[in-house]
Amino acid sequence: MKLFIVDDEKAVRDYIVSLPAWNRLGCTIVGQAADGWEAYETICRAKDKRPDVLITDIRMPSMDGIELTRRILDVCPDMKVIFLTAHGEYEYAKQAVKLGVVDFITKPFHENELVDRVQWIRDHRLDRRRPDWVQQEAWIQSLLTMPHREMPGSLDLPNTLNQPVIFFFIEIDNSGLLDDLGKPFTNLTLREFIADVMTSFPHTYWSALAHSGLYLVLFMSPSATKEQSVHEAMEVARKILGAIGESCGFSISIGISDLLPSVTELRRGREEAKKCLEYRMLIGRNSIVAYSAMLLMQEQKREQSEMNRSELSDLLRRGEQEPLSDYLRSKSRTFMMEGISKTRIQEACMEMVETAGQILHSFGIQPSPEETIAVRKDVLSYTILSDLMAFMESFLKNTASQISAVRQNTPIHYIDATMNFIERRYMEDITLQMLAEELFVNYSYLSRLIKKETGRNFSDVLWEHRINIAKEKLSTTSMKHYEVAYAVGFKDAAHFSQLFKKMTGKTPSEYKG
Asked: Is the peptide bond prior to 202 cis by the omega test (within 30 degrees of 0)?
């Protein structure tokens, strides 16, 4: 394969020309030039020795690389062009696509990077028909920036508008750091790799350059289910990830949207795919995150948060201080094992403060605004986890102490005592009179209080608890229904059966199955 080198820096030209790898690849340097105009004239004159690959700088005197490429491809449309530049601007890459440039390499570059690209062109690219990337760029960018009803007819959109699609955001990991690390990236290289991968799939696809990677629109079969489409999209993503590997000198992660009814929903698809990539911070490089999986992770996170809030609420409502120490130790271990950031730890502690405030309010305790602000300020001031947890333990125990004091003088205390009494002695022949005597409270007052707070009489609460225990025994033991009746405190098996059916809709035998 014949190569032509263009750069206004002689040292760069000499370096490229002298690379020993060209002999190994069977490549010949047929010419070099210091600017675009000199290169254009030399190539046009050498009709019998025109190069297969033009390697050119972009910023040069007389004629820059973009104008050179535009003119050369008019004369030699099959020539492959690689851009070299010290400037990694996104706009250059977009112009390169429109011109049909096969790669865009930023200086300083590594020898292997340039050699590998030339070898790739030699092995895979010379005879392959290139997709109409310019047209695809126009379609995707228009669909992402304007409503369908406002699109100009000049776009000449194909008859796939109503075909379901899945949107991929294929982003280069840590793209902003690659130049500093001496590993400049090119999304044109990424596009070439993906074009190669897609030849093994039957799907129609479009692609467009993004600032830090590539957008890929995958057209799915209208007859496929959503599950089938998502599964196929994951297969494509895995194949792309496997093909990239370490070949490009960088890694990628892929965000995959939900199944979209048509390309007119591309803006929604891009937002979904971008949200997926936010999880890369936790998952790491080479991540593939589908929107449906992300929603599941978010739901699990919400459920866990609700469980934590519910557990803390129960502890505070009981007004017991010691269990709060175990609760906070467990939270602290979770923070350390998951490597959660300072901000996320502070957010979790703020949620605890908010929960404590809600419980205090339910007991008629209203901290002053100054107290609330002071607590929040303290939470944000700590930078050491152990110190923050010690503060939270003191704060929550103080909250529990306030609640305990209120409970001793409110109806809630008597209701809790009633439930505790029933749980301890439901097997016995207990009465409300026995409970009143145990609590040293007036029988009539306790009866009215239970009715007011629960909406039921003491006997109804007792029977409901006994029936719930009976349901558990019927489901988990081999006991006969009459044995269960006596075990849960009923003296009459017939009365038990009658009450059981009234409360569950089934007889004990039917329930046991």
From this structure: no
